[in-house]
Structure prediction request, 186 residues.
Amino acid sequence: MGVQKRYQAIVLGILLAYTIGLSVGRRESALYGTAGADPAGHVSVKAYRDGELFYEFDDHNLITTEGSTHIRDFMGWANQSNVACIHLSLSNDGAPQTSWTKLPGEITVSNLDRATGTQSALNATAYQVTYTWTASAAADVQCTGLHWSAAGDSSGNLLAAASISSVSLQANDMLQVTWTVNIPDG
Prediction:
């Protein structure tokens, strides 16, 4: 291989490595946030039938206007309740809107009603909430919400919502939802 061909191969390799690194960095920052960035969230959904994984979806969420107000209030503007955002809901609604105050078609049947998740700290700026439902009847799910109230189908407490690829559950299917919330440091 000539000197010019080696030089071209090295330059092409460097450009390829830079592009891959940039792409992965964008994906990670979009899902989990980066220093100095806005609050970010990530939702992971898995469904199991007869103990076998048959559905998996990961994406970011949309923080509602009401959720942003709750964060502001919690941080000191009007912190009256100090209520944690650890309650998860499901629906078959389409793309979330920032104006939502709950999931419009929140599922309240088939053992898929709003549930209090198990929370854990991931690091100094992020936490995770996970819950696994077991469907008692067939249902379609394509949206999940994160709330600060455990009251099923209640309004005025939706921090964030995420659209997921539709999953059709049958009786006894398990659906696991994990929300990751990151409030990046400055």
The CA atoms of residues 137 and 171 lie 4 Å apart. The two ends are 49 Å apart (CA to CA).
